[in-house]
Design goal:
about 80 residues, Rossmann fold
Length: about 80
Amino acid sequence: MEGVQRFKDEQFDMVFTDLGMPEMTGWDVARSVKDKNSQIPVALITGWGEEFDQSRLKDAGVDLIVAKPFTVDRILRLVDEAMDI
């Protein structure tokens, strides 16, 4: 919830969010981000693999999936990819 509020108050180029969080899910965060600015890329971090229903990803506003565990190199490649979205 704090991250969503910060997004509303500040400017970001990209958002990374974990899928499973206690107060709100990564799906909820992605929707909140896209409601405020549909141009911001959203990456969903998950320990449940990379296979998700494409329509659910699109409906939630998720642009990229990041499977755990991940490396810094993987994150840097995703940031480069996201900036092209």
